Amino acid sequence: MKREIIKTLDGSTTIHIEEWDECYHSKHGAIQEAQHVFIKNGLALFQNRNVSILEIGFGTGLNAFISFLESKKMNQSIDYVGVEAYPISSEELLSMNYVDELNANSNKPIFEKMHQSNWEEKTVLNDHFSLTKRQQFFSDIDDKDKYDLIYFDAFGYRVQPELWSTAIFKKMYDALKNNGVLVTYAARGVVKRSMIEVGFTVEKLAGPPGKREMFRARKTQ
Question: Which strand (E) or helix (H) includes residue 195?
Fold first, then answer.
């Protein structure tokens, strides 16, 4: 499938898949979406503590990089696991402008190391952030009671409904610790029903720019 680099409305880049008319991040603002969905409504719930995170769709590394930057402000130590079935190319990575747009030039080596690190190995980026990238289909995830927070950032239901199935959300529920949280940009009724079916308590929140609503789900036993 043909892929192109485009600029989103906040000036940050993303990858557009022409055949699906689908992007890795919101066309209304890649950075804005990441900060609203995953940081404000996810990571910020865990200030001043150790956090284990599972990202569903590592993609460009934007969510991981912003989490690294924000963790310093929130006094967090993060063990981050990113799952991606189809890693982006080196050429695509070089076209991403996140370091500049986030005014994070002093941390450019961190962003680069996130992508240069070996898959399937834990990489310690500094004394408060470690990253493990797993090249894996979401359907093969079998972690149990391991994570405090899940960033569910798969391609949209319109193009890959199988990634939003009850079976996948059961895996997410099992992977979370009790009182763990899953956040996603999605707000479809069918997604909410699948989450509730596997045991999640789901709340609807205001969405990022260009999107009216989003979901946050919590595992309670």
Answer: helix 189-198
Per-residue pLDDT reduced to its tens digit, 134-170: 999 999 999 999 999 999 999 999 999 999 999 999 9
Element (H, E) at 83: strand 77-83
In the chain, where are the structural domains located? Answer: 3-219
Cα–Cα distances in Å, from 21 out to 3, 8, 24, 37, 172? 10, 14, 10, 22, 27
Q: What secondary structure letter does DSSP report for 11?
A: S
CATH architecture of the region 3-219: 3-Layer(aba) Sandwich (3.40)
Please check whether residue 181 is in contact with residue 17, taking contact to mean a CB–CB distance below 8 angstroms.
no
Averaged over 7-19, what is the pLDDT?
Answer: 96
pTM of the model as a whole: 0.97
Three-state DSSP string of 20-47 = CCEECCCCCCHHHHHHHHHHHCCHHHHC
